[in-house]
Amino acid sequence: MRIRLVAASLAVSLLSLPALAQDKVGVAACDDFLEKYEACVAKMPAASQQAVKDSIVQMRTAWKASATDANSRTALESACKSTATSMNQSMSAYGCKF
Questions:
Q1: Residue 30's closest CA among 61, 69, 71, 70?
Q2: H or E stretch covering 84
């Protein structure tokens, strides 16, 4: 449990580094979504930004793990496209487009 907390803390702190944006999942639809979602964070209220950044770290980590399995890549691509479609509607209030 303690290792998970340390790893999560490290992952969150790394989100502020520009290099993390270059940390690709390896599935175009997922990488495109994450890039647009990261850009959208700056348009959100400051009180919401950290939670969204944490969510992005979790998504990237999970999607990256799924992308290593060739059998999961097609399903992952579909899931990322679906996520982008749903987020497009909910995040339009901030002027974000997915």
A1: 61
A2: helix 73-90
pTM over 0.85: no
Length of the chain: 98
CA distance 8 to 81: 26
One-letter amino acid for residue 71 of the chain: N
Task: Look up tokens 């997922």; give the residue.
Answer: 30
3-state secondary structure of 22: coil
Indicate the DSSP class of residue 68: T
Per-residue pLDDT tens digits of the chain, which is 98 residues long: 445 444 444 444 444 444 445 589 999 999 999 999 999 999 999 999 999 999 999 999 999 999 998 889 999 999 999 999 999 888 999 999 98
Q: How far is it, in rounded angstroms, from Cα 70 to Cα 50?
A: 32
In this structure, the dihedral spanned by the alpha carbons of residues 15, 19, 22 and 26, taken in order and rounded to 10 degrees, is: -70
HSE toward the beta carbon, residue 46, CA cutoff 13 A: 0
